Structure formats: C-alpha cells, structure tokens
Amino acid sequence: MKQTIVIGAGITGLTTALYLRRAGLPVLVLEGAERAGGQIRTLQEEGYTFETGPNTGSISFPEVAELFALLPSGYEAATPAGNCRYIYKKGRLHQLPSGPWSGLTTPLFTLSDKFRLLGEPWRKKGDDPYESVGSLAKRRLGKSFLQYAVDPFVGGIYAGDPMKLETRHALPKLYNLEQEHGSFIRGAMAKAKEPKNDRDRLATKEVYSARHGLETMIHEMVEQIGTEHIRTGATVTSVRQGAAGDWLVTYQQGGELHEVSADHVVSTVGAHALAGFLSETLPDELLSSITSLYYAPIVEVAVGFDRTVSSYRGFGALMPSSEPVDILGVLFPSDCFADRTPTTEGVLYSIFMGGTRRPDLIDMAEKELQALALKDLYKVLDIDPRIVPNMVHISRHRHAIPQYGAESERRCAAIAEVEHRYPGLIIAGNCRDGIGMAHRITQATQVAQQLITDSDQ
Fold first, then answer.
1. What is the pLDDT of residues 318-342, one digit of tens each?
2. Quick one: which of 105, 202, 208, 306 could link to 75 by a disulfide (CB 3.0–4.6 Å)?
C-alpha cells in the first residue's frame, strides 16, 4: 500500500494526515519542533488562557465545518460581541459600519467617498491582473476607504501593505467579484442569490475558536491520527528520488539520521524552510522562485487584567498605518469566548505588532516590547495608566505571515512545474492558496482527497 510522508505538523499537515488515516492509508508525519500544531498554540498563565499564534478562524468553507464535525469537541462560536469591530482614527475607536445607515453616518470615510460608493456598480472594471489590493480599493472605493477600511484590514490579516499585495493571490474573492461581475456590490449581490446545496450551507462564516483554546483541536487531531504516525523533533534534511522512482526522505531525530521511503511526499512547511531539504533535488531557479516568498514577522502580546479596564467591548480593533501607533491591532478574546480569564470580572487582550510596518520589533528586547505594547493598548482603549496588568506574555514569530506580492505568479508557476516534473512530490502549505486556517484546512482536504483517489487507481 502506498505510503505518504507529510513534512510539517501544523494545521495543513495534520489535516492531510487525518484524512489519509481515516481512509486507511499509511502516513508518517515528520515535524522538526518538539510538538505538533505549528503556530497554533494555547497557553495558560496566572489563570488566563491565551493563544500565542492565531486567535480565531472562520467557517469560510465547508471543509472547515466538516473537519470540526470529526473532532469530539467541535468548535466554539464567538459570542454576539464578536460582531462589533473597531477602527482607530484620530485618537479614538470607531465602530466599523455593519449596515447602510451606519455606513452613511460613520466618521471613518469622507462624504465624497460615501457618494462615490453609490457609483461603484457602474465603475469600469480593471484590466491589470497584477493590480495591488491598495490600487484596486482606491480605484473602486476611494482614498478614505483604502485608508480606514482596507489598509487596517490588510494589516490585521496579512500584517502587510495593501499597495504591495497582489489582489489576485492575496484576496482572490475580491478580485473575482470585479472580474466576473464588474463590481464588488453587484458581485456580492449575485453571490448572495446563487443557489446553495446542503454542503454550501456549512460555510456559515462564523468566527470560531475551540473550548479551552485552539490547541484543543490540535490534540484531538493528533489523537485521531495516532501518535505512532507522528514524529516530533524530526528535522527533515533531504528529500530525493530513489532509483525505483520512490521518494527517500532523510531526517534527524535524537542525534541520529533516519531514512524512510514513500510514494508521495507532501511538504506543508513554510517556503523559507524548503531549501533545507530540497536543494539537492530541485533546480536552483525553481527552488528560489518558491523560497523567495517573504514572511512578515509578528510579535504577539497577551495582556490580562483582573477587572474591566475599558468601555470598549467586541471582537477587537485595527490600526490604520497612517495612525501614530506601533501596534497592528488588538483582539478582545474574553469578550468572545468563555473561560479565558481566572474570574468572570477579568479581561484578556491579544496585541499584534510588527509585520511589514515594524519588522524591527521582532528583535526588540522584552522590556522595551512590553512597554511599547502597553503604551498603545492604554492609549487606544483609554485605560487608566495607574492600572497594572496581572499578566503579560510575549510571543515572537520570525516567519509568521507570507506576503503574496508581485512575485506570486512566478512562485505558483514554479510550484506547478515542480509537481509536474517530480510526480509524487507535493508543495502545499501557506506558500500558496491562502494564509488563514480555513484556507489551510481546505487545501489539505483537497490534497488528501487527491491522494486517496490516486491510491484507488
């Protein structure tokens, strides 16, 4: 029976392995870290439960709901407070509009751009397939929508610059709305009218976490896969084709080298890590087209208080790059999910910093980072400076979020060429197909389904 080796035990690798195991196929997951889960990790400190990586996901695709249906704990949907989101402008937070009336009255956008929005359905569609997110937003919506909606949104999702992200790859749904319907508004209305089957309706777009944090889902996936099929602390050093056409994977674990063979190898690690084991197999030109993908660094700061310290409640707040703050945004996990604080009176915040705006923060000393994060948190949420937090925890991610920029077409073409030229080798992970957990789960499900289909032939 054909064996598959999966490199990486993040959400992509674990989802792939879970479906292969459920199909009865042999699989071995190799993970360089000492734990499975990748960037998904939940910690408890001083009675607070917080994430050190992604805080939430969205049931954006049926594949996400189908995965959770297999896990004993399922998912925990955000409370209604999660529908309230803020944008920081000129020294205070403003609630992001949720309907036509609030859209007309919000101070976030200029009056001229509000009127401009009325003409969006009749505006000529663009003809540049490489147009940036920022250029597209400014052309169709106006400068203030770019500055106080799209820019902070991109900062919150990609920790990036909307003028440098290519729409077709970074936000393909947005790109397709214009290209297929000529307008964001007309496209959204057409999509809403499309008939949906039972599976389509699984994509509720609910914001989710898991009971006791996202790492719960990781533990349950590992249990279903079986720990005997996952080797942690196993650093892959080489992937090469054998004389018989199979794949030989060399990895180091516990100071010893091991070699295993497989019919398929699925890499789910970041593009920056591929050179560590594919440099002897792939031509330099192909490999460099993939590994040149830039990953923005992120610093995440969890802050806990023993009582309510701000009047703002909701999902969180985003910071436009034009505003004089150093943080990208702040989430309010204790407003959206249960049991995140030691008492019902406590509050928990998750602050995100760095990205392409301040990549230098990844190397800043802990004391200075904490001071910078708390300064902006107190400023944005109008917290009394005399109040001292009960808990502060800093996490650093040097290669956090890939930036799907102008080189995206070349990278995706190189991946397709690799998979065509080297049958059995699959380059998955966040170097293509989207960066969110929903994208990772969907991609992994599709990869696994293709391998299952191939095994039947």
1. 999 999 999 999 999 999 999 999 9
2. 208
In tens, the pLDDT along 99-153 reads: 778 888 999 999 999 999 999 999 999 999 999 999 999 999 999 999 999 999 9
Domain spans of the chain, in order of start: 4-38+217-293+404-456, 99-194
* Residue 165 amino acid letter: L
Q: How far apart are CA 22 and CA 43, in angstroms?
A: 29
Q: Which helix (H) or strand (E) holds 102?
A: helix 100-105
Its pTM stands at 0.96
DSSP state, residue 173:
H
Can you tell me the distance from the alpha carbon of 88 to that of 329, in angstroms, rounded to the nearest whole number? Answer: 9
What's the Cα-to-Cα distance from 303 to each of 238, 348, 382, 389, rounded to whole Å?
41, 6, 15, 7
What six digits make up the tokens of 194? Answer: 């499309």
Place of tokens 């957990």: 437
Beta bridge mates, 50: 43
99-194: CATH superfamily = protoporphyrinogen ix oxidase, domain 3 (1.10.3110.10)
- C-alpha 301/C-alpha 374 separation (Å) is 9
- Give the position of tokens 């196929």: 25
Q: Could you tell me where the beta strands, DSSP code E, fall in 233-294?
A: 234-241, 247-253, 256-262, 264-267
Q: What is the CATH number of domain 4-38+217-293+404-456?
A: 3.50.50.60
